[in-house]
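Supplementary Text 2. Reproducibility record for the structural model of the 266-residue chain.

All settings were left at their defaults, and a single model was retained for analysis rather than an ensemble. We include the record here because the model underlies the residue-level annotations in Supplementary Table 4.
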Amino acid sequence: MISRAFAPAKINLTLHVTGQRSDGYHLLDSLVVFADIGDRLTFEPADENTLGVHGPFAAGVPTDGRNSVMQAAVMAGASHAITLEKNLPHGAGIGGGSSDAAAVLRHFNVRDNAEQLGADVPVCLLAKAQRMQGIGDVLTPLPDVPPCAAVLVNPGVHIPTPQVFKALVQKSNPPMPTNLPALNSAGDLIAWLALMRNDLQPPALSISPIINDVLTALSDHSPLVRMSGSGATCFALFNTRAQADQVAQTLAQANPNWWVQPTTLS
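Retained model, structure tokens:
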């Protein structure tokens, strides 16, 4: 019997770096949401775990124990032939590998020790809007965050997360407000997010200036553009999906080497 799982892209609408612990881990305060696009997995019972990878971003993806999907399968006690359809770009600040691992754990109903597979795996387990604090271990579901249309753009560059954190000059920055305001519409969300930040955006721009080209292109169409996570994927938010679809089509035609996807975030 073949079964399936979906691993949505993770988007950090905000990412405030609020400090650094003595062990080197950074403290964060982030509003995390998930897209309706992502990687897909299929599972078929087998004598042992195996992994096959296909899709537009399959090149270079390991199929052995280095892959978080295989690690999650071992943690789940699974024995399956697993196929991963890799639709999300690598090292793109949208949690591809973490979401893949979380999808495996969710599929096999494993909820404990997810952090052993990576700091972003616990937040990806729920795959719904959450406030992520601490080192990614303090999670608060946010069921009242309204869905919002968006366009995701990656210019085809991979920025290692440690390199971005190393370039971050100020490690202690203000967190988000203790209490988030009432957000009754996509417009409310966009207006409030404009007051927030991604503290990793400036250091990422210093490492890879092409990110600024993406932000500039998006800002011609949306009042709220920002980089997600440690980059290089950027997003623009819109009041309607029709707007996002049209802008995505325009940007993709003008920039054929960019990964451009319209989506709905929730």
